[in-house]
Amino acid sequence: MDRLNNSVVSEFVLLGLSSSWETKVFLMLIFSLIYLGIILGNLFIFFLVIFDSHLHSPMYFVLANLSVIEVGLTSTTVPKMIMDLLIEYKIISFQSCMTQICFIHIMGGVEMVLLIAMAFDRYTAICKPLHYLNIMNPKICVSFVIAGWVTGVIHAMSQFAFIINLPFCGPNEVDSFYCDFPRIIKLACTDGDRFEFIIAANSGFMSMGTFFLLILSYIFILVTVWKRSSGDLSKAFVTLSAHITVVVLFFTPCMFLYVWPFPTSSIDKYLFIADFAITPILNPIIYTLRNKDIKVAIKRLSKQGHYVRLC
């Protein structure tokens, strides 16, 4: 870590999202409401799963962990983005920038594994219902969570090890509202082609591989349901369509930024709003408004609250 202190560049300037004052105020209000919704919605699911014994099942265990990760991933970027919208000179220290990059990729790695766990849970419940409890036992669920954190840390540190050895001597302007490997590598005072390949091979392969694995798993589930229900896919498709929407929204920006050569345009920063704001707020909506067990648990909670007030 000594290299961080020896870098000539001590801070980066984030160019942000917009230069119009009216647009900045509008975006600040919108993202403030979205961030509040993300925090309240995901934490509500987390505590509901913990305190309602009827939700102590494999799927909701994974869902509770996913909710925590969504809060963590969003909190690495959105609060600063909101504050920077009303600041003319948006700066982030070198150390804070590196820390933000690490947390983004750690949380992103964990979320990918948890999405795989949820897809595996749905596959087991639909395709192997008689063996569901044996397959999705507590040990497997905890293993998925541990595997997610291990994957996330290895994924982030394997790239960070190269970044900290790069010389940064200027310029220091990042055309985005957050720090990430592709944008930072372009500012290094060295030939970044080799490092761009490392990032693309790591993050790109991980993003694309996970995306296609999830899509194939959902297709396999739909085919299985189609065979068993004589072609009636309506119920299964309604259930899985929300999951597929979240997967597409989460992975499209990742593949756009990491799979192909690093973009020269600034469109990727707008795409990543889906990862940091849209997807995290969709999860509570999808898993509450479209989930029977969660809705029943909310009714139980409201009845208990009403009973407590009467007493």
Automatic annotation (TrEMBL):
The gene is LOC122893451. Belongs to the G-protein coupled receptor 1 family. Residues 41-287 form the G-protein coupled receptors family 1 profile domain. It is found in: Cell membrane; Membrane. Keywords: Cell membrane, Disulfide bond, G-protein coupled receptor, Membrane, Olfaction, Receptor, Sensory transduction, Transducer, Transmembrane, Transmembrane helix. InterPro entries: GPCR_Rhodpsn, GPCR_Rhodpsn_7TM, Olfact_rcpt, Olfactory_Receptors. Putative odorant or sperm cell receptor. The chain crosses the membrane at residues 25-51, 58-78, 98-120, 140-164, 205-225, 237-258, 270-289. GO terms for molecular function: G protein-coupled receptor activity; olfactory receptor activity. PANTHER family: OLFACTORY RECEPTOR (PTHR48002). It is a multi-pass membrane protein. One of its GO terms (cellular component) is plasma membrane. This is Olfactory receptor. Pfam families: 7tm_4 (PF13853).
